[in-house]
Amino acid sequence: MRTYDLTPLYRSAVGFDRLAGMLESAARTSEAGWPPYNIETTGENAYRIELAVAGFAPEELTMEVKENLLTVTGKKATTGEDRTYLHRGLAERDFERRFQLADYVVVTEARLVNGLLTVDLKRELPEALKPRRIEIVTGSPTIEGKAEPKAQPKIEKKAA
């Protein structure tokens, strides 16, 4: 695996040290291929991460979200059994997989079915950041801070 020296980027990009740090940590991932995962979009503001964690029980998996970083950790419990394998193709090693989440993305659900850990995410913008429609009113301008009175519609009563 190639390693890149990002030191010149730190010197010339004042204020972008978080971006450079993310690039450097992405380049440093040791076990980048395990466990395999998919990221898909399930709607306009909905996403899903699927991790293949065959052989892990729900109590051996932990998920934590801290400062827009989703961390999924798997620690295999030692059973104390002494097994002799002729071929060992199933990876039963501990892992830690991290996903950088965008602002306002929250985890809505996580479930483990048939060795596939599915994490549903949703982007929830606060009301202050959502676009809102502003109605444009027409009429005469105010004079000296007083608005001109509007004509009241006439209401006719029908005789019974």
TrEMBL record:
Q: Which PROSITE patterns match?
A: SHSP
Q: Outline the segment boundaries, as ranges, of region: Disordered.
A: 140-160
| Annotated Basic and acidic residues bias | 145-160
Give the signal sequence positions: none
Name the keywords, alphabetized. Stress response
Domain SHSP span(s) in chain numbering? 28-139
By sequence similarity, the record places it as follows: Belongs to the small heat shock protein (HSP20) family.
Protein name (record): Molecular chaperone IbpA
